[in-house]
Amino acid sequence: MSDDGDLERTFAALPPGRERGGARTWWGRAWLKALEDSALDLKQVKAGRRHARAGGVGAVSVRPGRITAVVRSADGATHRADVLLAELSDEQWDRFLAMSVERAGHVAALLDREMPPHLVEDAQSAGVELLPGIGDLEPECDCGAWDHCAHTTALCYQMASLLDEDSFALLLMRGRSERALLDALQARGTVPTPVSSTPEGVDAAEAYATGALLPPLPALPELPSEPGTPPSFDSETPPAPGIDPAGLRHLAALTAIEARRLLVEALQEDSFAREELTIAQDAVRLASGVSDGLVLTRLAQGAGRSPEALAGAVRAWLTGGVDALSVWDEEWSVSGERLARARAALDAAWEPAERPSLRAGGNRWTVVGGDAQLRLGRDGRWWPYRKERGRWLPASGPSRDPATALAGCGVPFGEEVL
Fold first, then answer.
1. DSSP state of 119
2. N or C: which end of the chain has fewer CB within 10 A?
3. Closest CA to 350 of 298, 397, 402, 312
4. Cα–Cα distance between 326 and 118 in angstroms, integer?
5. Angstrom distance (rounded) from CA 53 to CA 16
6. How far is CA 405 from the centre of its chain?
7. Distance between alpha carbon 117 and the CA centroid of its chain, in Å?
8. Residue 232: how many CA atoms within 13 Å on its side-chain side?
9. pLDDT above 70 covers what percent of the chain?
10. Contact 140, 152 (CB under 8 A)
11. 120-161 tens-digit pLDDT
């Protein structure tokens, strides 16, 4: 164990949210798998997940070998919960550091606060287990349970959310703080450059890892408070044949809005490139916010839709962009592993007595006798739909949890749907 002064970190309590019952990153999911494979009572696991979703886990203290939090039960009682994970020995840390500096990509990943699978696999080959396995998460709770109880499982679910944001919290549990680890990597020097008779260039990961710590990047530009103002199209000159002034004004305004949206995405840390829109999809995007009937008619023709269908597609677009539009348009057969995952998600979302009656049809699950529907996207997210004037229309944004999505249709979570 390092003797530096950063051997305890406290993470503030997270607000209630259905997403607290899961993990986005693969290492966060590996943490939860270690819990779920070890716990003997699945009812306690489900209860712990509900506590975490309800915001019942207080501030989480992370120290070498242990995480601690006060967990509030549904009845208002509070309990101190601890989960223990064995620290790595000094010898194991030496092997991990030696392995990391031999591979420039590992240093670059650590500097980016990431834990890619190949880093974990190489660590395993060196005899170092970074992620917990079955039975590695040892529970302690003042409620007196000898196995994982609802309080320790709630703490584990909360920790998975924290690991999504900061994988160094796991390394701290294993015995080293972020500062100590990075200092140790820097002390071991840079990655040696292979000697070659023919220059082959320098790998990007190696270039960024050289020197261990890079200087800070310049500050990002400030985001404008609103889209820019397009140029004026007022002119005494008549438009050229084939030019629609109203459509051109609308296109210029949407271009300014789209430019600001792209800047917002670029300034987000988790931004990523999307595929280019099809002509039909872009026609729906352009139609959002249009009130001119002539422009809407032309856009409906470009989208290959009736005006009524275009209005529904625009509503889907405003709900979630191209992903929501795909769910609006596509009805596909769910089978194999996807069907098994969907059924498992539906089974886990409610207690048996609370589960609504759903009728499946392709990727659409409709509440029997109701006006609510869940649509499963190809990425595994659930989209809520509600019947309005005989048509199914998007109700709100998606969720990984079916119960949360159904609540977006106005169906209360935890109440029987008749």
1. H
2. C
3. 402
4. 33
5. 5
6. 16
7. 18
8. 3
9. 84
10. yes
11. 888 888 888 988 988 899 999 999 888 899 999 999 999 988
